[in-house]
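Marked as duplicate of an earlier ticket. Keeping the data here for the record.
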Amino acid sequence: MKWQGRRQSDNMEDRRGMSSGGKTIVGGGIIGIIILLLNIFGGENAQMITPVLEQFNNQSQTAPTEQRDLTPSEVEEGRFVNAILVDNEDTWQKIFQENNLQFEPAKLVLFSGQVSTACGGASSASGPFYCPGDKVIYMDMSFFEELRTKFGAQGGDFAVAYVIAHEYGHHIQTLLGTSSKMRQLQQGKSEKEANKLSVALELQADFYAGLWTHYNEKQRKFLEPGDIEEALSAAQAVGDDAIQRKMQGQVIPDSFTHGTSEQRMYWFQKGLQSGDIKQGNTFNTAL
């Protein structure tokens, strides 16, 4: 994808190369896998896993504060992420203006290892996530290597762009009140019914990622051959059915929280093709 030449956003903070000090979450082994499965493309689930993380904070240890210079490739990677953040800011500002809505940009933090957020502590095993408590997207870039090697995604720069756009979609849901409304609807529901609402929220974030792609392509002509395929490959790799089949050898639909591979690809493509925010009501429409 074409991304060079963008302005740099002040809403990104690069904490890579620094340790957070203090408590280090034990994120390896089964614990890390559980957190990854619960929170891959985190969204609202970043809040749901906080009690899990706090439970294991008792097993944490104090790490010394360290800092190192970023490598040239990490610096370039940071510039790329910042460019995608800028594209999301500009695109959603335009969409909100068209719909007479007030826009507020999200912040994005790049980190390595572990990070403290308003939704609790998290490790790299959590995967990229958005915390509505501080309106920040948190990303450890090592996730994308795992996405390729462990979950079979193609990789590529647009796979990263898709993930950022998905997480930015959760920010849009926070601004529009969709997230808080979903949490209210989940109260008193069975786990199965609450999971269905979580799936709808995640699929809408995929729709918003497609919508962002539609608008950004129209404005900037930034897509290159193979980009959409990279996004669809990432969406397919992180479907609940694909993850469960790979990690536990069986699929349990009632436990889905993010949607199937087919659903995730469908809603991304619907946003991409329609370019109409009004067609993203995943709560009333089933695939």
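See parent ticket for discussion. The chain has eleven helices and eight strands.
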